[in-house]
Amino acid sequence: MSPLQLFIEYSVVGIAAGGVYALIALGIIVIFKASHTFNFAMGEMMMLSAYFFYAASVTFALGPWLGLGVALLSSVVVGLIIERVAIRPMLGRPFIAVVMVTFGIGAIIRGIVGLVWGPNELQIPAILARTPVMLGDIFVPGRTARAFAIAVVIVVGLILYLRYSRAGVALRAAAADAVTAYSMGIDVRRIVAFSWVIAAITGCISGVLMASVNTLTPHLGVVAMNVLAVIILGGLNSIGGVLVAGLIIGWLEAVTGMFLPTSFREITPYILTLIVLLIRPNGLFGARQVERI
Amino acid sequence: MLRVENVQLSFGGVHALSGVSVHAKKGEITSVIGPNGAGKTSLFNVISGFYKPQSGTVMLDGEDVSSLKPHARAYRGMSRTFQNIALFHGMTVLDNIKLGAHTNLRSGVLSAGFGLSLTRREEDELDQRVRRDVVEALELDTVQNHYVEDLAYGLQKRIELARALVMKPKILLLDEPVAGMNREEKQEMGRFVRGVRDNWNTTVLLIEHDMGMVMKISDHVAVLSFGKPIASGTPDEVRANPAVIKAYLGASDDAVTEKA
Amino acid sequence: MSAAETTSLAPAAKGKIMQRIWLIVLLVALLALPQVAPGHWVYFAGLLGINIIATQGLNLMMGYAGLLSLGHAAFVGVGAYTAALLQIHLGLPFWITLPAAGIMSALVGAVFGLPSLRIRGLYLIIATLAAQFILHFIFVGWQSVTNGDVGLTVAAASIFGYPLNNEVRIYYLILVVAILATIFARNVVRSRVGRAFVAIRERDLTAQVLGVETIRYKFIAFALGSFYAGVAGALLAYFNRYVNPEQFTLLLSVFFLSAVIVGGMGSILGAILGATFMTLLPEILREGLIPLAGMIGFDLSAVMTPLREVVFGLLIVGFLLLEPRGLAQLWKRAKRKFSR
Q1: Chains in contact with A, counting 3 or more C-beta pairs less than 8 Å apart as contact
Q2: Mean pLDDT throughout A188-197?
Q3: Is C329 left (phi over 0), alpha (psi -120 to 50) or beta?
Q4: ipTM of this model?
Q5: A268 domain residue, yes or no
Q6: Does residue C121 or residue B215 have the better pLDDT?
Q7: Chain A residue closest in CA terms to C265
C-alpha cells in the first residue's frame, strides 16, 4: 500500500472515530448556548453513563437494550440533579466560578466511579457488530464504522429537533438574548435544565459507544477534555464548526498514531490548540466581540 | 485642552457619529447633550480609546492621542467615569480610589514585593493625599473603609468621581453623572462637579441627559442629535436655539423652562 | 463623628499590637515545633509549607488577577525537575536551584500563557489544561532527561556543607521560604500591582481606562504564580529527595485549586488556611475515616485516591456555592464574634 493510500485510510478511520467526538461536542455546545456555561464535567458524565450501562446490562443482567434504556434514564436524572443542585444556584456568578463548579463535579464523579467500580477495565456487552466495513479499498473496523453511523444519526436527529421543536426554538432564542427571551415568556431556567438533559443524552450515547469501541475504564472521559479544547478552536457560536472540530480530533488522533507513538495521541489536540491560539488568538472562526461598557 | 475633530464612527453601516467635533476649553465645564441614541456614549468611547473611529482626531493638550490605547491615554492625563457604575466590588472605597492613581505611581512587582522604600514612600504619600484631598473634598470619610457594594447609588457615583479625580487628570470625562439620581443627589453632584472645576482647576467634559443639571453648571454646551452636531454655545445660546428645541425637545420649549 | 473616630482609633492600634504579639507567638511556635512535636508532624509541617507556597502562587493569579489555572501542578513539576537536573548535572546548590526553578516555571508558564493572555477567560483555562497534559507527558516521555516513570533521585540540600538531610532540617528551610513567599505576596497585593490585579479580575475594561495595561499585569500575575509553583516544586524535590511524574498529575492541580477556593480567593490568609486544610484533610481521612470504616468492615485504604477526588470535588463545589469567600471569611466572622 502506498503512503498516500495509508494516509487516506488512517484519515477515514480517524474521521469515523470522530463521529462520537462530534456527539460529545454537541452536548457541550448545547449547554453553552443555553447558559454560557462551559461544562468541564462532560467527560465524567459520559463515563458515568457507560458505567450505568455496564451496571444495568451486566450486573443486573437486564441485557443490552433494556440496559441502555436504564442508562439513558439514569444519566438524564444525574444531569438534572447537577443542574438543579450546582448550576442553577450559580446563576449570575462569574463565568470562571461556574467553570470551576463543573470541574469540581467532574472530580466528584471520577471519584465516585473509582470508589464503586475500581480502576480496572471492564467489558460491556457487545452491541456493535465487528464485521468490517469496506469503503472501496479502505477497511474500516466494524465497531468504529457503526459507532460513527449511530453518532451521525443522533447528531442529525438532535439538530433537526433543536431546529424545529418548540424547546429547540426556545433554546436558540435564549442563546441569542436571554433577557428578551425571558420577556417573551420563555422560562430560561427550564431551557437550561433542558440543555442539561440533551447533554446527558449525548453523553450517555457517546459514552456507551466509546466503551463499546474501546473498553470501559475510568479514563474514558478524558477524551471530552480534548473535545473541549478543540471546540474552542471551532468557535462557540456555530454548531457546524463544533461538529467539524469533533471530526478533526478523531482525524488528528488517527494521523498522529500513524507518525508518532500512540501515547502522543493524548496531547496532539492540545498542541494543535496552542498553535492555533498563537496564530489566531480568537479561535479559527471566532470574531472579536464588541463589548458594551 | 481636549479637542475632538470631525469624528466619523459607524458600526457595520450604521452611523453612530458623523462629523462630530467638540472642544473642551481649559478650566471649563463643557457638556454634550442629546436625546438617547444621539451618540453621546459612543463619543466618549472614541475619546477614551475603546472605539476606533473611521476618521477624525482626538487631541489632548496639543498632542494627537487618536492612535493610543485606553491605558496610554490615562497616562497622558485622561480619566473618566461610567454611565453604569464601574466600581470594583472586591475592594474598599479607599482602594477603589487609590486605583485611580495607578498612573501616578511607579512601583513594579519586585519593588512592591520586597517592600522597597520606593513603594513604601509612594503608598504612604498616596494614602495621605487620597485622605486629605479626595476623601475629604467629596465627603467620603465615613465610608472609606466600607466595601463598595453595600453603599447607596448616589454615593457610588461620587466614589467613581473620586477615583477619576485622584490622578489629577487634565481632562475629566463624566458619563451621565446624575443618571438615576433623585433631586437632592443631583444637586449634590452638581456642587461636586463645580467644585472640581473651581478647586482643582480641572477641565471637565460631561455628557448628560438631564438638561437642568447641564444648564446650571456648564460653561459651554454642545448638542448632538442622531450622531450629528446641531448646535453649540453657552447654555443660554443653546437654550434659545430653535434647532435644539426642535430636535431635542420635540418642539415643546416648555420642557426647557420647566426642567431648567 | 470626630469623637467617634478618636475613640475607635485606640482599639485599632491595640488590635495591631495584639496582632503583632500573636504573630510572634506563632513564629516561636513554628520554630519550636520540631523540638516538641513527633517526627511525622514535622514531616507534615514541611509538606504544608511547600503547599502554602504553591497555593499563594495560584491565589495570586487566580484569586487576585482572576486567571484560572488548571495546570498548576505541572508548573510545580517543572520547578522540581529543574532543581533536580541542575543539582544532578551541574552540582548547583539549592540557593541557586531554588530561584532558577522559579524562573524556569515562569518561563514555561509564559510559553503556555502568553498566547491566551491577550484574550479573556476560557482560552487561558484551556491553555493551562494543555500545559498540564503536555508537561506531564514530557515528564513521562522524555526518558533521557527525566528518567521517565522512575524519576530522578535528588541529594539533600546543604548550607555551607551542612546537609538538610532529615525532615527537621529541611523543615527550617521550607519555613523560611514560606514566610518570605507569604510576605512578598502580601506586599504585592497591598500595592499598586495588587490593586491592578483585582481591577483586571473584576472589570478589565475599566482597569484600562484607569491606566492599567491589562495584558502586562495579567502576564505579571501569571509569571509570578508560576514562579511560586516552581519554587515550591524545587523544595518538594529536596523534601522528598526524588522527583517523578506521578507527583504532578491533574489531581494535584485540583488539589491547589481546592486549596485556593476553600481558603478564600483573593486572601493571603485564605491561601494559608486553604493549604492547611487541604494538606491535613487526607490525614484526617486516613486517621479518622479508615479506622471508622474498618470497624464496619470496609477497607478504605485501597481507595484513597478516588475518595480524595470525591472530597476535593465536594469542597470545590460546596464552597463555591455556599461560601465563595472561603475559610478566610469564616475566620473573620469567628474573630468578630469572639472579640465582641
Answers
A1: B, C
A2: 88
A3: alpha
A4: 0.85
A5: yes
A6: B215
A7: A97
* Architecture in CATH for domain C37-339: Orthogonal Bundle (1.10)
- Cβ distance A293 to B82 less than 8 Å, yes or no, reads yes
The total number of structural domains that make up chain A: 1
What pLDDT is attached to residue C59? 95
The CA distance from A292 to C67, in Å, is 22
Q: What is the DSSP letter of C161?
A: T
Q: Please, which pLDDT band fits residue B135 given cuts at 50, 70 and 90?
A: confident
How far apart CA A75 and CA A198 sit, in angstroms, is 10
pLDDT, one tens digit per residue, over B23-35 is 888 888 998 887 7
pLDDT level of residue A106 (50, 70, 90 thresholds):
very high
Residue B122: list chain C partners with CB under 8 A. 192
Model-level pTM?
0.87
What pLDDT digit, counting tens, does each position of C87-97 carry? 888 988 888 99
* In a domain? residue A289: no
Q: What is the pLDDT of residues B165-202, one digit of tens each?
A: 898 889 999 988 888 888 888 888 888 888 888 888 88
Backbone angles phi, psi at B229, to 5 degrees: -75, 135
* Residue A193, domain CATH: 1.10.3470
Q: Is C121 helix (H, G, I), strand (E, B) or coil?
A: coil
For residue B232, the cross-strand partners are B222
Better-predicted residue by pLDDT, B54 or C231: C231
CB contact under 8 A, C185 and B113: yes
Average pLDDT of chain A? Answer: 83
Beta pairing partners, A139? A134
Assess contact for C190 and B51: CB atoms under 8 A. no
Enumerate neighbours of C (3 or more CB pairs within 8 A).
A, B
Domain boundaries, chain C: 37-339
Q: Which three cell numbers stand for residue A125?
A: 456487552
Q: Looking at chain C from residue 267 to 326, which residues have their Cβ under 8 Å from any Cβ of chain A?
A: 303, 305-317, 320-321, 324
- CA atoms of C107 and C111, how far apart (whole Å): 6
Name the residue of chain B whose CA is nearest to A291's CA. Answer: B50
Confidence of residue B251 (pLDDT cuts 50, 70, 90): very low
Q: Is the pLDDT of residue B148 over 60?
A: yes
Of C243, C118, C142, the residue nearest A267 (C-alpha): C142
Domain that holds residue A35: 3-279
- The verdict on residue A284 lying in a domain is no
**What does the DSSP 8-state code read for residue B29?**
E
For B119-137, b/e burial (b = at least 16 CB within 10 A) is beebbeebeebbeebbbee
Q: What is the dihedral of CA C93, C96, C102, C107, to 10 degrees?
A: -120
- List residues bridging with B24 in a β-sheet: B2
Confidence band for A108, pLDDT divided at 50, 70 and 90: very high
Identify whether A180 is part of a domain.
yes
* C119: confidence class by pLDDT, cuts 50, 70, 90: low
pLDDT reading at C340 higher than 70: no
- C118 to chain A: which residues are within 8 Å by CB? 281
3-state SS class at B4: strand
3-state secondary structure chain A: CCHHHHHHHHHHHHHHHHHHHHHHHHHHHHHHHHHCCCCCCHHHHHHHHHHHHHHHHHHCCCCHHHHHHHHHHHHHHHHHHHHHHHHHHHCCCCHHHHHHHHHHHHHHHHHHHHHHHCCCCECCCCCCCCCCEEECCEEECHHHHHHHHHHHHHHHHHHHHHHHCHHHHHHHHHHHCHHHHHHCCCCHHHHHHHHHHHHHHHHHHHHHHHHHHCCECHHHHHHHHHHHHHHHHHCCCCHHHHHHHHHHHHHHHHHHHHHCCHHHHHCHHHHHHHHHHHHCCCCCCCCCCCCCC
Among candidate residues A85, A46, A93, A52, the one with its CA nearest the CA of residue A193: A85
